[in-house]
């Protein structure tokens, strides 16, 4: 298994872990519609980042990473789950970044 496959696997595992962590935090006391929307956007950003890594689109991966960084600071507890996932996606995107063989000249 090369760096590209490992990076893709890490991205999908990280997005899955974030989704499950957010689902576990969702029914905690203080549930509101705004929390549901925030968690949905954060999970979506994680999956957008993972999609960008898997399809080797650095720009799409960075959109997901930036979204997780921005929304991770919104709530401290959620940030503890979102920020490590954003770092994992960033590292995965760097590991699977476009190579000379598939980059256009």
From TrEMBL:
Keyword Transmembrane helix among UniProt keywords: yes
Transmembrane segments: 6-24, 36-54, 60-91
Domain of life (superkingdom): Archaea
Alphabetized UniProt keyword annotations: Membrane, Transmembrane, Transmembrane helix
Protein name: Uncharacterized protein
Native organism: Halogeometricum borinquense (strain ATCC 700274 / DSM 11551 / JCM 10706 / KCTC 4070 / PR3)
